């Protein structure tokens, strides 16, 4: 196709947008910043790790273009690629803070987390989201989803947070790809061989009709460049993750007795009667809720027995000047895809509502209330209606709420007595400035189940398990997770279910220590600064950050 | 994945480093770097068992263009034709004045 943007590779895409002669690439192919995690798994690396960072001008405006190469490993985000994006966005933030306006443009052509570097991908993506939220105070952060890969996984959560999303009709946007949903929930939930259904559900035409992208343009370089110039001029912001009442009302009005189809959803979307939703504090109930590690700890830490709430899966309460928040399973939930404690539509929006309220209440206070997240999330919800409505926006809403709370000065501490997996962890956990985990074998920390990772990366489960031996970020257990250096503390000797009075006191003491040690830190940098991170866990990250800083 | 290593006795020094290509399916990236030592080619390829084919493609290239360079190739299953195309493209970049 003549003058097609989609057909271009990442570097050509960035160059095609920039005014001639203004481009400057940073940490490019000649800088030898290759991913250290791919070759040990017998995967051919790329010299730029699939990310092109370019500074330059568009119609005379200073811009930073971050272009993801969708053709290299599906545009997946790993340690080096993620750190490149984070470091560049943070430099752009610094410039904007100092009065030097620079507009960040992110070209998303990505499957999300690079499954071969799973836990690095999750960490990096949360750091990208954090930088985007901070930047939006100064400039719009512009997103472009040209296709062929489109935008999936954790990077779609990022997409939901961006100010303005431009797409072509060659792109799809979703949280979980149809193949993963089929793997996790069965072919009746989502048939990944039904291409029409996929495009009609996840294609940008449908996404435009329901507010998940802001503009769909024909695929030419000129069209895309003009849309960007126009956005720089008008500075529109979709505020996509700030429509919590709208979506909670929409979910109330959803008929869960039958499978949602596109036509009825579009009708519902246009006719939602929006009412204010406050999620009241959890109160003691008469019956035991569905058992989970998250619930046990929440009840013991807040002293609320059989805690119940208007949203049965989202529990929150104030205790001792701290706000505790947990996402818990409900075996009788009306939404079938969250019955095991997954983070679904309602969970994401409800948590966002809770956190936004805490921030609003403390707005004028000098000392902001600490927020303690109790993480026991086996994953995000895998379902057709979840994707049709846009579960990535639900997860983006809670991630954005936590990030804003932290950036406003609330200590945000994540306590992990249970699982912390994938989109669930991005929505409820990874935006915290300190993470405390129990050293228990039952805890899973990962981006995807083994069965799904094997399917997507076209390896056998045996090959996968072999790979986890060489690359800690691929592993599923908390001890390997500790090797990445992101934890504030790995607590030994307390089991996942052992929320005794003594143990609760011990954990509270550790949480208080973490809060005291913050000293005003509102960033996520702690993860790079622990001895383990410096020594081994985030070595490549730190090298990337240094290079970007030098070349900026 | 297989790692391959070749040496060539070539003498035409190159003036600057260049990079072309993408590690996409059926494609490869090529980096030339100036060197004053022997020409070295280091290949990481996703397709195992093609050492001889690589040797032939490279020999033909260097017979024609005896550049002296440190060459790095990351290959994701490209055919000999594509390899030759990318090598020639890198050569074109060397001539590019910008």
UniProtKB/TrEMBL annotation, chain A:
Pfam families: Carboxyl_trans, MdcE. Residues 1-248 form the CoA carboxyltransferase N-terminal domain. It comes from Companilactobacillus paralimentarius DSM 13238 = JCM 10415. PROSITE patterns: COA_CT_NTER. Keywords: Transferase. GO terms for biological process: carbohydrate metabolic process; fatty acid biosynthetic process; malonyl-CoA biosynthetic process. Gene3D superfamilies: 2-enoyl-CoA Hydratase, Chain A, domain 1. SUPFAM superfamilies: ClpP/crotonase. InterPro entries: AcCoA_carboxyl_beta, ClpP/crotonase-like_dom_sf, COA_CT_N, Malonate_beta, Malonate_gamma. One of its GO terms (molecular function) is carboxy-lyase activity. This is Malonate decarboxylase, beta subunit. It comes from the Bacteria.
TrEMBL record, chain B:
It comes from the Bacteria. InterPro entries: Mal_deCO2ase/Cit_lyase_ACP, Malonate_deCO2ase_dsu. Coiled coil: none annotated. It is found in: Cytoplasm. The modification O-(phosphoribosyl dephospho-coenzyme A)serine is found at residue 25. Covalently binds the prosthetic group of malonate decarboxylase. Keywords: Cytoplasm, Phosphoprotein. One of its GO terms (cellular component) is cytoplasm. NCBIfam families: malonate_delta, PRK01220.1. This is Malonate decarboxylase acyl carrier protein. It comes from Companilactobacillus bobalius DSM 19674.
């Amino acid at each position: 196709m003549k003058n097609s943007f989609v057909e271009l590779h990442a570097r050509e895409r960035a160059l095609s947008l920039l005014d001639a002669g203004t481009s400057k690439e940073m940490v490019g192919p000649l800088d030898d910043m290759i991913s250290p995690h791919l070759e040990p798994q017998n995967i051919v690396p790329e010299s730029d790790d699939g990310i092109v960072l370019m500074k330059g001008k568009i119609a005379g405006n200073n811009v930073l273009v971050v272009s993801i190469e969708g053709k290299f490993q599906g545009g997946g985000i790993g340690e080096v690629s993620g750190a490149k994006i984070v470091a560049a966005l943070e430099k752009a933030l610094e410039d904007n803070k100092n009065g030097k306006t620079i507009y960040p443009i992110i070209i998303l052509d990505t499957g999300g987390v690079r499954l071969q570097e799973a836990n690095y991908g999750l960490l990096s993506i949360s750091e990208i989201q954090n930088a985007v939220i901070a930047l939006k105070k100064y400039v719009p952060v512009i997103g472009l989803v040209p296709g062929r890969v489109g935008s999936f996984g954790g990077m779609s959560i990022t997409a939901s947070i961006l100010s303005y999303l431009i797409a072509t009709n060659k792109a799809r946007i979703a949280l979980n790809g149809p193949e993963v949903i089929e793997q996790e929930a069965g072919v009746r939930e989502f048939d990944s061989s039904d291409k029409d259904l996929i495009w009609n559900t996840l294609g940008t035409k449908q996404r435009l009709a329901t507010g998940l992208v802001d503009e769909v343009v024909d695929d030419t370089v000129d069209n895309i460049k003009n849309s960007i110039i126009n956005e720089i001029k008008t500075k529109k912001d979709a505020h996509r993750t700030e429509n919590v009442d709208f979506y909670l009302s929409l979910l109330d009005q959803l008929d869960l007795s039958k499978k949602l189809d596109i036509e009825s959803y579009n009708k519902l979307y246009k006719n939602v009667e929006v009412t204010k939703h406050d999620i009241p504090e959890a109160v003691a109930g008469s019956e035991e809720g569905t058992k989970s590690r998250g619930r046990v700890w929440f009840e013991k830490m807040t002293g609320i027995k059989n805690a119940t709430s208007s949203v049965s899966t989202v529990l929150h309460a104030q205790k001792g000047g701290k706000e505790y928040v947990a996402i818990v399973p409900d075996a009788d939930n009306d939404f079938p895809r969250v019955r095991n404690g997954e983070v679904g539509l309602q969970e994401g929006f409800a948590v966002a509502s809770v956190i936004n309220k805490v921030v609003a209440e403390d707005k004028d206070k000098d000392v902001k209330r600490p927020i303690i997240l109790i993480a026991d999330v086996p994953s995000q919800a895998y379902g057709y209606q979840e994707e049709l409505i846009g579960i990535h926006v639900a997860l983006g809403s809670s991630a954005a709420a936590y990030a804003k709370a932290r950036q406003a000065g609330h200590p945000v501490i994540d306590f992990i007595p249970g699982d912390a997996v994938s989109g669930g962890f991005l929505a409820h956990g990874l935006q915290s400035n300190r993470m405390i985990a129990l050293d228990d074998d039952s805890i899973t920390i990962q981006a995807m189940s083994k069965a799904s990772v094997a399917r997507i990366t076209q390896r056998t489960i045996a090959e996968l398990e072999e790979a986890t031996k060489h690359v800690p970020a691929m592993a599923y257990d908390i001890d390997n997770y500790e090797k990445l250096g992101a934890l504030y503390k790995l607590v030994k000797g307390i089991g996942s279910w052992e929320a005794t009075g003594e143990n609760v006191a011990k954990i509270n003491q550790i949480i208080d220590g973490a809060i005291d040690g913050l000293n005003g830190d509102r960033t996520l940098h702690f993860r790079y600064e622990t001895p383990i991170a410096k020594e081994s866990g985030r070595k490549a990250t730190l090298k990337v950050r240094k290079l970007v800083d030098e070349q900026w | 994945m297989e790692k391959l290593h070749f040496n060539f006795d070539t003498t035409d020094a190159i003036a600057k480093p260049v990079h072309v290509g993408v590690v996409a399916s059926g494609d490869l990236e090529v980096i030339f770097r100036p060197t004053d030592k022997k020409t070295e080619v280091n290949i990481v390829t996703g397709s195992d068992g093609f050492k001889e084919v690589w040797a032939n493609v490279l020999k033909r290239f260097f017979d024609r263009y005896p550049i002296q360079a440190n060459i790095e190739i990351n290959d994701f299953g490209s055919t000999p034709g594509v390899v030759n195309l990318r090598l020639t493209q890198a050569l074109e970049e060397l001539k590019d004045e910008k």
